[in-house]
Amino acid sequence: MTTTAVPATRRTVLRGAAVGCAGALTPVVGAGLAEAVTGTPATAARPTAARPAVDRPNVIVVSIDDLGWDELGCYGNRFNETPHIDRLAREGVRFTQAYAAAPLCSPTRAALVTGRYPGRTGITDYLRGEGAASDLHLSPRIPGIPSVLKPRGYTTGHIGKWHLTETYHGHYRSRPGNPYAHGFDEVILSEHRYIGGGDYFAPYEFLPGVPGRTSHEYLTDRLALEAVGFIRRHRNQPFFLHVANYAVHTKLRGKSALVEKYRAKPGAGGPGARPTLAAMLESVDTQVGRIVRTLKDLGIARNTLLLVTSDNGGQNRPANRPLRGGKGELYEAGIRVPLVAWWPGQAPGGRVTSELASTIDILPTAAALAHGTTPKGVDGIDLSPVIRAKAPSGRDTLFWAYPHHIGGWHPSAAVRQGGFKVVRRLRTGRDELYDLVADPAETTDIAKRAPETRKRLSALLTEHLDELDLFAPPPGSVDYARVATTGGFHALPGTGLRRSTEHVAAGRFALTIATSGLVAAGRGEIRLGVAQDADNLLVVRYSHRRRGVRWELRHRGRSITQGAEPVRTLDGTVDLSRPGARLGMAVRGSQVTAYGDPGTGRWQMLFRFDVGGVLDFDSRTVRSRYRYAATSGKGFRARLA
Q1: Is 171 a catalytic residue?
Q2: Which of 61, 566, 638, 641 has the most crowded Cβ, counting Cβ within 10 A?
Q3: Is there a single domain that holds both residue 390 and residue 449?
Q4: Secondary structure of 443-492 in HEC code, one letter for each residue
Q5: Which of 84, 137, 158, 163 is catalytic?
Q6: Are residues 455 and 327 in the same domain?
């Protein structure tokens, strides 16, 4: 075994200082990184006799990043040209009520691998790069597609975007949550560095060391080449393959000839007619065509289910009309996506279905086709009876939870049952009700006109959120049964804070401070949290000038807030100057939830964040270093779970 020094990063230096981790060396074994980024197969094909039709069929999923619900020709787009996918829709099944499990990429990808709602996987937002305070990844302890299919003789492959870890240093196989850790046999062209906005032409910034196989190679074409190679290697055995495109995403770059082709088309530049996106999408469509042609050439098309879908709704709101919203939102345009299922000889062609479908259904569908066992805790259902036109799904309910700020969107959750949908604002608990049959654009909130329907769906959503347990409970709840001892407060030089004598006494605790008196006394900013010293502290901050709440994490004198969600969207909406107003902070290990009470006696959930890349208060070492801190000891309260 050899070792290689890991570059100094937030996780090797900052967290090491926080919790006493020793060393910055990572063992390197095998050639996993080369496999991941160059396309070298991890396993050779195992020769087997040709399989009879429909014996443990292959499953291929082609996901298109940020593809809007109506950006394919078969979904009504008249500008983009997607003849291969359109043909699959004519020869297979097109779903009109298919949904992503989340309005953003990483949570949906976690749901695809595990068959669970994102809230059960710990991945509820897009994962950040190494500059972030968090240290999140999809835990291999959660059973996923490889663990279900490999006992049934399947080879599993992942080609392309993974985005389920926040660690981008060290040997690829050693990184928390990497695809190999989840059991994938072959991992090809999965990002080595953080993907950011996208990178489409060789040399690829997030795939260092991967040479283009052709001059000015286009990444979507390279994924097609690798997919064809995987299929050929494993044609004589059952396989599962996820082709996870980096395109189209946010930063659009297409092949110049295709871009010019679309710029010359009538209507170019109008809603739903973006030349660069159209060029990128044509490349993805060509990729799908190459996959289909390979299946036919090898004679295994009739033993292969091919699914084409998206990880979330489209970002361009004008192009999403008449659906409301877009990527990052729980209105329809943020979560409704295309889904085309093609299976020659098994899925009767030319069908359009309004059955509810979701990303969470891919695992249980693959498990059923493989005659495998679906793990306990899976939320999805087997869609194969719908695809094969044998029976309806029997499902009428789907849930979403996105407890984060992005753009102007605030933490929300939603439930759809039948044709009705409730969207809940998690800060206030206000529910909106929409009739998606009569009003698919969600233009009219009918909560007051249909109170019984709202009540029924609201109860379902409340029960689901209680199960997910997404937030540290608010201060004052029964969860915090013990009063914390502070030992009094003393000024902490260089901070404007007062720090307690006693250390943090539990990994789960809640802090509050009365704010109205401090505001009246001229305090423009009120802070609440924990501190080791002036260079190491974690606080939530209320600014009366901004009428908003944000957070601050300092470690070794550096601000560690890169990649933090934009809680500035709260500015102008939080007023803690009224009598009885309070600022609250609840901590559960590395997860922090900020609360505010504007003087009503009821806590509002403002935002949550994770600091696991630096601090985890489940660690006694961390607790022994940190003490409670606030702008003033007067009106301060601390309770322990």
Answers
A1: no
A2: 638
A3: no
A4: CCCCCCCCHHHHHHHHHHHHHHHHHHCCCCCCCCCCCCCEECCCCCEEEE
A5: 163
A6: no
Residue 38: inside a domain, yes or no?
Answer: no
CB 301 within 8 A of CB 379: no
pTM above 0.85, yes or no: yes
Q: How far is CA 387 from the centre of its chain?
A: 27
Residue 637 lies in a domain: no
CATH, residue 451: 3.30.1120.10
Measured distance CA(162)–CA(168) in Å, rounded = 12
Residues 184 and 285 in one domain: yes
* 422 and 531 part of one domain: no
Query: Which domain does 430 fall in, by range?
Result: 410-471
Instruction: With a cut of 60, say whether residue 26 has pLDDT above it.
Output: no
Residue 198's pLDDT is what?
Answer: 64
Active site includes 105?
yes
- Domain boundary residue, one of 368, 395, 422: 395
Regarding beta strands 548-555 and 536-543, do their DSSP bridges make them parallel or antiparallel, or are they unpaired? Answer: antiparallel
Please give the backbone phi and psi of residue 110, each rounded to the nearest 5 degrees, phi first.
-65, -40
Tokens 């322990």 — which residue? Answer: 640
What number is the average pLDDT over the span 424-438?
97
455 and 514 co-located in one domain = no
Tens digits of residue pLDDT in 224-249? 999 999 999 999 999 999 999 999 98
Question: 294 and 441 share a domain?
Answer: no
The neighbour count for residue 197, using CB atoms within 10 Å, is 9
Q: Which of 105, 169, 171, 249 is labelled catalytic?
A: 105
Q: Can you tell me which residue has the tokens 């606080």?
A: 539
- If you ran DSSP here, which 8-state letter would residue 121 be given? H
One-character DSSP codes across 525-542: EEEEEEEEETTEEEEEEE
